[in-house]
Design brief:
Oligomer: single chain
Structural class: mainly beta
Number of helices: 0
Low-confidence stretches: 149-176
């Protein structure tokens, strides 16, 4: 299935389409920060976005600081159904968060900051869910979608095909999909316009550096290297075994922070790569290799936890 582009820095309250609807094996990732003034916020998986009459809500995930609990529910034909409450407040005012909604054939499985939090059994068929809604006192960085067919998690990209993440059955010990580092995967068909890559994760609290490489055989067409020890993002290329001149200028200052989640979006255009961090365009990098079809490998490594790759 085709992957839907993320929503970056959406204005809250937000309602946006899930193109093609939810499917078994999909993951929806919401990252951002809770405002210090927040009393409640919610994420809704909806059947449409009508307000009057209100669309059905297949899964209502409602964080209530005023009641120190998380409420899960569904809304059908104008009525709220039976609440499911969990008195385990894993969110903190003024702090960043990452919520991962793993959709499987029987339920929504919710992870918060990489840890399994709860499961909500389907009450409304997945095929009817086509909209995501978010409201409350939040600063949302991104809403991204991970489809059943993604980059392989493999050290051998030549032999690995794009594969479906396993459906994690409740009742067994499991963790959310975290990509092992160093990460290396094939970019089939090269990396040329209008292709893009999104890399999401969290920076280690004590991070020094990490990098994202776009490789063309033995050459590195684009080396993106955040350096927290220097407070800069270095860009460069390595061609014929030699590094070129570094680019370091950041018009808005260093956009990445130790201990914080991030989303880096690399868009390939005819003359350059455009790079956005957490929804804000940061810089362009003019191509130094001109046969973009030769760019065939993505590499990520360094002081980060890698949680999502989309292309």
């Amino acid at each position: 299935m085709a992957l839907q582009s993320p929503y970056f820095k959406p204005i809250i309250p937000f309602n946006g389409p899930i193109y093609g609807g939810l499917k078994d094996g999909m993951t929806v990732l919401v990252s951002g920060s809770v405002l210090k003034s927040c009393t409640r916020f919610q994420v809704d998986f909806q059947c449409g976005k009508s307000q009057i009459p209100r669309s059905d809500i297949a899964f209502h995930f409602n964080v209530r600081f005023d009641q120190n609990c998380i409420v899960c529910n569904s809304h059908e034909k104008g009525d709220w159904k039976q609440e499911e409450r969990k008195y385990d407040m894993v969110f903190h005012k003024g702090q960043p968060f990452e919520i991962r909604f793993l959709v499987n054939i029987s339920s929504y499985v919710v992870f918060v900051d990489g840890k399994l939090f709860l499961e909500f059994k389907h009450r409304i068929p997945l095929s009817l869910v086509d909209t995501i809604g978010i409201s409350g006192e939040l600063d949302v960085v991104s809403i991204s979608f991970q489809g059943p067919n993604l980059y392989p998690v493999s050290s051998n990209p030549v032999s690995q095909t794009f594969s479906q993440p396993s459906a994690y059955p409740i009742g067994q010990c499991f963790q959310p999909q975290l990509y092992p580092l160093p990460y290396r995967a094939t970019i089939f068909g090269g990396f040329c316009p209008p292709k893009s890559i999104m890399v999401s994760g969290s920076v280690f609290p004590s991070a020094q550096r990490f990098h994202i490489n776009l490789k063309a055989g033995n050459d590195t067409a684009f080396h993106l290297n955040p350096r927290f020890d220097e407070n800069v993002i270095v860009r460069n290329s390595k061609l014929n075994m030699s590094w070129g001149s570094e680019e370091r200028h950041l018009p808005y200052g260093m956009p990445l922070m130790r201990g914080q989640p991030f989303t880096i979006w690399i868009q390939c255009e005819g003359h350059c790569f455009k790079v956005a961090v957490n929804g804000q365009h940061q810089f362009d990098y003019k191509h130094r290799i001109y046969n973009l079809l030769q760019i065939n490998v993505l590499e990520v490594d360094g002081d980060v936890t890698l949680t999502n790759i989309q292309a």
